[in-house]
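HUMAN: Spend a minute on the protein record below and explain its fold to me.
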Amino acid sequence: MTLTSILTRRVIGPAVFFACAALLAAAEPERITFCSYNLKNWLTMDRLDTKTFQTLPSAPKPDDEKGRVVKILTAIKPDILGVCEIGTSDDLADLQKRLKAAGINLPHTELAHGGDPTRRLALLSRLPIKARNSQTGLKYQLGAQMLPFQRGILDVTIAITPTFDLHCVGVHLKSMREIEEADQAQMRRNEARLLRKHLDSIFTKESGARILAYGDFNEHRNESAIPEIMGSPRTSDTAMQDIWLKDRNGEVWTHFWDAADSYSRLDYCFFSRVLRPHLDFNRCFIYSARDFDKASDHRPLVIKISPEPILKKE
């Protein structure tokens, strides 16, 4: 009878049970917690006062919303945090300071942007950043127009261990909001193509790259940008696979649009083939809380990564 089966059947006394449980937990390799989270405008912008219905010019994200974001992240305890919709370096420092006061120290940071002068991408990490390759000046042709990749691509390499590097590639693709300049779906697909090209450049330099591509893709699973990013399954060495995340109720939605009472899966994490053995799929999830909307209109994605390959149980 294995230690696991003994613990499961509980055929031993309490003292021995807890001692064995501790030994079993200690035998498991360390798990790194990665979190992807759209913070919903942690920045300065014109806002609507929900009490007076008047516009507040150049207002920061309300303190109660910031406090709720920090409370959620304190529950998750990320070692690496990738965020969308943050503003300036001061906003990033504000988030970092609040997290540290709550007991989460993430001293290593990266701030990236594209053509959008307001909303940026950021990454905060407990572990050191080994390399930086964020793309801030990408453009694409759409009809007669040359358009910028609105939020760019955040790309850093994290040294998980001396022999384990993790490429964290974050994006926030064009929103679904219609604009006069161009078709929003076509803009998103072109940004997806630029992301795929960037991923291929990583594989070209490092064929065994462990890549985690994450963020707010503003796209449903059956729409064109997602397969564009994932690549052809036939080229398995460079294809990206979807971590099919669920919350504790088995639901997959990550975004709530209150005006339409609509729940959608718009946030994703994709992984390269070589990273698969290091993902603890049983512990990856969408963070669920009743009042998640007090912090953001998105829910965080939580990924558990082991520096050592996880052995499949018989």
Observations:
- The chain is about 25% helix and 30% strand.
- The two ends are 13 Å apart (CA to CA).
- The helical segments are 3-9, 14-27, 63-76, 89-101, 184-205, 225-230.
- Residues 85 and 230 are 23 Å apart (CA to CA).
